[in-house]
Amino acid sequence: MKTIACIGSGNMGFALMKNASNDNAVFFTDADSEKAAAAASSIGAKTLTSNKEAAIKGDYIFLAVKPQTLPLVLAEIAPVIKERLKTGQPPVLVSMAAGWTIGKIQSAAGEKTPVARLMPNTPALIGKGMIAMSVSPEVTNQNTRELKDILDGAGIIDILDEHYMDAVTGVSGSGPAFAFLFIEAMADGGVRAGLPRDKALRYAAQTVIGAAAMIQETGKHPGELKDMVASPGGTTIAGIAALEEGAFRGAVMKAVEAARKRSEELGRNQ
């Protein structure tokens, strides 16, 4: 059993702790103590009185705060982390702050601090997340295995080089919001075509679920699967033409790129 301290009890911190709570001792701390208490109570975890206490107790310390808040948190816990480094038993800091590199976190918390950088997304709340993870050289193979075990219930974990993280932020970090917008637009189109609102939303959501599953399970390229639906002179190709008139693919690509750039900006501006 490992002690996991989560600094921050917002959506992402809660999502990951919800799935980490079964075989580990989980603690929350938050500037809003009532919010931390509610999050802890809902998953059978406990609260701590301060971020400093989290730094003292945690084997893994999740930094589940906004990028703008992270400098204050790191300044608060850095003295404890540095003392633990001297003993040879440092915790692993696990950050999910967009734009914050491993090197920047180590500069603030203490050189040679083991750091794992995550980019999760909100479907982790229901165990369907996509979680990219990069680790510093100080994170041992055992640490990595334990982190994967901790995160496993939240979704798919993929380990990759850190220089991809801003791109990951644009695709899977921000991507659920793009998908929700598409589903909402599909449902609105269904309502405009005459479907009741509840039916239109149900059909749109399940259609996206099914389409994503086909890509994952068949291994076929999305373009090939699209062509399977778009018969000559049919309804689907007429709809695709309308999307292309609206520069649909270009707009989506620009959305991913804008999110990537913003991730880089957040890192530079802190």
What value does the average pLDDT take?
Answer: 93
CATH topology of the largest domain: Rossmann fold
Calculate the terminal CA-CA distance, rounded to whole Å.
35 Å
Helix content: 55-70%
Q: What oligomeric assembly is this protein in?
A: single chain
The CATH architecture designation of the largest domain is 3-Layer(aba) Sandwich
The description of the largest β-sheet is: 8 strands, mixed
Spatial shape:
elongated
Strand portion: 5-15%
Give, in spatial order, the strands making up the sheet with the most strands: 3-2-1-4-5-6-7-8
**What is the total domain count?**
2
Provide the low-confidence segments as ranges. Answer: none
- Overall SS class: alpha/beta
Beta-strand segment tally: 8
Indicate the radius of gyration in whole angstroms: 21 Å
**Name of the CATH class of the largest domain:** Alpha Beta
Task: Assign the CATH superfamily of the largest domain.
Answer: NAD(P)-binding Rossmann-like Domain
What's the tally of helices?
A: 12
What order do the SSEs take from the amino end to the carboxyl end, as H and E?
A: EHEHEHEHEHEEHEHHHHHH
Structure commentary:
This protein has helices spanning 11-20, 33-43, 51-57, 70-87, 102-109, 141-151, 165-173, 175-192, 197-218, 222-229, 235-245, 248-269; strands spanning 3-7, 25-29, 46-47, 60-63, 92-95, 115-119, 129-135, 155-159. By secondary structure, the chain is an alpha/beta fold. It has 2 domains: 3-165, NAD(P)-binding Rossmann-like Domain (Rossmann fold, 3-Layer(aba) Sandwich), CATH 3.40.50; 173-269, ProC C-terminal domain-like (ProC C-terminal domain-like fold, Orthogonal Bundle). It has an 8-stranded mixed β-sheet with strand order 3-2-1-4-5-6-7-8, sandwiched between helices. The two termini are 35 Å apart. The model has no long low-confidence stretch (mean pLDDT 93).
